[in-house]
Q: What sequence folds into this?
């Protein structure tokens, strides 16, 4: 078996995840498994990474995001080929809040893809990492999960689910060889936020966010706000009394 | 709608900003537009070639994926939003380098092709387009076309240097060249006047791959400067320079480049460089990209922004024309700090509207003082027109249409290849649509 680090990325076409992978392979050749739904889009990411690091082993796994049996089988097959050092669970999509209110199907999809699915994936990895007593599970949450706001509370609720789940998982694995890292990006310049950019929103460069994810995961930090200023902003927002909060248009 | 500026920061008009992130969706996005758009990469061109006030900009920086790199042949295939910096980082450790690179590596491949950019080695390797084997173009009628040296080379010649007006470039195949190390053997030689510059340029062409010079257009008798030349070398195992980046954090209320500062700037720079004259081993980054570690340096010209004025005039009249331009600048009292004088080699460009042509090119920066600056440009235009030269559209925000038409003789031929769904500030100004 090779001595390369084994990194798994679920939702590999997510911009943060992709830049995270680029940071890894810039440093050293790795054994990388990219998991995603759309074969053509993962292929694009994989070819790019292959050009950047021809010595890395890059595998593609096409997978579904909601069927627990299928997820379990996918994760087992990934872990079977070697002990996983880090799994980054990064998939998600940003719905328009108004669409979630108008169309319950969108509402449900937002909850499923951003909340339920990452948790099932994490749980499947947790089961196997617990056995090995080794590995890092990194989950991408969001600052939106810190407090429900009218502008995106369905998405926020799903990310809040991930937050609470990660807390529990950290509690479960405290003192073991398994680490759990929760990343809470602020608004980041990615394809997911392209419509916000068009409206002139201020977005953090994805390279910077990925770099903080990379450093934070390496250090095994329990919670990473990226960029770091969001820790302060969200602390204030979390603590605003309702009488003030309800008057704020955010 | 979102305000967007180009590198000169002369305007910040609202644009519909449409990011192109997924190559398979580009067709849909560029076809659907209610009004014409134009591709926009890093926004490093100085004027309005990458702008489309009140219209659509298709942002290409998300098309940043490598597709294939053959290390045995140096053939690279990548998406059009890949930065030249990323190519250099990828290729140089593996013994390959971009054959031609402009003075900043923070530009996209698509932008480098659309403006057919040149570097310090024009006399040896031509411009960027000379090394593009083929490219993929998406037209706003939804057609996806491969063109290159072996197929549709007419459309290819229109697209190289075509300012993005023939379609959206989404992918390119580039031939890199062998390089032994990231280091260059360089020599810095001061010159006292234009005559000496031309002698140095002629003497250097045979033995030096890269030649460029900084010219002091304010102090001295006019025309003194610092000539720099370099060749790649096989020195290795030196510690790479630290990539420490500084940034101009805010836009100062007035231009830091002004009548008060220019004289001491130029005097100090000339004497500092003269003092450092002689041979030196230099890393490719400071040699090719001296300003890339000073982030947002364009802010130093203050809130009104700045113009670049880059001309090329034929060699026979080059010395007289350059002297006349320097004289006009001195007379105006304004001046330029980032003044670059360089000879182009005797070769025809690939693109119908490519800027480089045999002769000598002078690039100057001027803080925007409105009317006063435009008056100076009119006098410089007259010299360029008389010399049968032309101006560089990638730098331009103001040239008159007749000067453009006089300088670019293949314009009519080019117009046949334009995509009617694409329009930029520059195309409306200089081509009427």
A:
């Amino acid at each position: 078996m090779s001595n390369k680090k084994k990194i798994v990325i679920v939702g590999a076409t997510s911009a943060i995840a992709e830049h995270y992978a680029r940071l890894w392979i810039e440093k050293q050749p790795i054994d990388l498994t990219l998991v995603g739904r759309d074969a053509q889009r993962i292929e694009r990411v994989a070819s790019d990474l292959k050009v950047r690091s021809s010595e890395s082993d890059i595998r593609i796994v096409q997978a579904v995001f909601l069927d627990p049996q299928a997820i379990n089988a996918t994760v087992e097959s990934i872990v079977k080929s070697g002990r996983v050092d880090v799994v980054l669970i990064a998939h998600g999509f940003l719905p328009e809040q108004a669409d979630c209110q108008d169309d319950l199907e969108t509402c449900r999809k937002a909850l499923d893809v951003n909340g339920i699915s990452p948790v099932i994936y994490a749980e499947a990895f947790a089961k196997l990492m617990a056995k090995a007593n080794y590995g890092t599970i990194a989950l991408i949450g969001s600052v939106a999960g810190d407090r429900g706001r009218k502008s995106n509370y369905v998405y926020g609720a799903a990310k809040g689910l991930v937050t609470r789940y990660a807390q529990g998982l950290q509690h479960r694995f405290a003192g073991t060889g398994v680490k759990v890292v929760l990343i809470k990006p602020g608004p980041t310049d990615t394809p997911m936020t392209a419509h916000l950019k068009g409206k002139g929103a201020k977005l953090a460069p994805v390279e910077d966010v990925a770099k903080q994810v990379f450093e934070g995961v390496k250090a095994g930090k329990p919670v990473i706000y990226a960029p770091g200023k969001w820790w302060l902003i969200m602390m204030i927002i979390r603590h605003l009394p309702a009488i003030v909060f309800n008057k704020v248009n955010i | 709608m979102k305000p967007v500026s180009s590198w000169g920061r002369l305007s910040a008009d609202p644009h519909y900003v449409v990011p192109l992130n997924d190559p398979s969706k580009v067709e849909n996005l560029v076809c659907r537009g209610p009004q014409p758009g134009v591709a926009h990469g890093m926004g490093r061109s100085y004027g309005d070639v990458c702008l489309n006030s009140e219209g659509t900009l298709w942002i290409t920086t998300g098309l940043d994926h490598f597709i294939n790199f053959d290390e045995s042949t140096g053939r690279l295939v990548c998406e059009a939003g890949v930065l030249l910096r990323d190519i250099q980082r990828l290729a140089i450790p593996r013994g390959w380098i971009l054959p031609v690179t402009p003075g900043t590596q923070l530009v996209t491949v698509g932008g480098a092709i659309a403006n057919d950019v040149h570097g310090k080695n024009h006399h040896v390797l031509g411009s960027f387009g000379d090394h593009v084997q083929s490219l993929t173009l998406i037209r706003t009628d939804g057609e996806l076309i491969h063109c290159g040296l072996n197929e549709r080379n007419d459309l290819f010649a229109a697209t190289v240097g075509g300012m993005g007006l023939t379609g959206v470039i989404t992918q390119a195949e580039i031939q890199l060249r062998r390089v032994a190390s990231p280091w260059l053997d360089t020599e810095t030689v001061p010159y006292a006047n234009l005559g000496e510059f031309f002698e140095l340029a002629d003497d250097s062409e045979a033995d030096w791959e890269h030649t460029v010079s900084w010219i002091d257009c304010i102090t001295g008798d006019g025309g003194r400067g610092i000539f720099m030349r370099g060749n790649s070398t096989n020195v290795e195992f030196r510690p790479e320079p630290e990539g420490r980046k500084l940034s101009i954090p805010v836009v100062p209320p007035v231009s830091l480049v002004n009548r008060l500062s220019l004289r001491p700037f130029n005097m100090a720079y000339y004497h500092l460089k003269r003092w450092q004259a002689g041979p030196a081993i230099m890393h490719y980054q400071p040699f090719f990209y001296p300003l890339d570690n000073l982030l947002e340096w364009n802010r130093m010209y203050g809130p009104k922004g700045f113009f670049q004025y880059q001309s090329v005039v034929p060699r026979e009249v080059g010395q007289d024309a350059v002297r006349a331009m320097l004289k006009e600048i001195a007379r105006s009292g304004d001046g330029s700090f980032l003044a670059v004088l360089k000879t182009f080699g005797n070769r025809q460009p690939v693109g119908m509207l490519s800027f480089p042509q045999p002769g000598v090119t002078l690039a100057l920066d001027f803080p925007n003082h409105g009317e006063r600056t435009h008056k100076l440009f009119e006098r410089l235009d007259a010299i360029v027109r008389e010399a049968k030269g032309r101006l560089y559209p990638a730098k331009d925000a103001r040239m008159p249409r007749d000067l453009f038409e006089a300088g670019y003789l293949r314009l009519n031929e080019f117009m046949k290849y334009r995509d009617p769904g694409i329009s930029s500030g520059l195309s409306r100004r200089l081509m009427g649509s």
Q: What stands out?
A: Chain A has a mean pLDDT of 93.
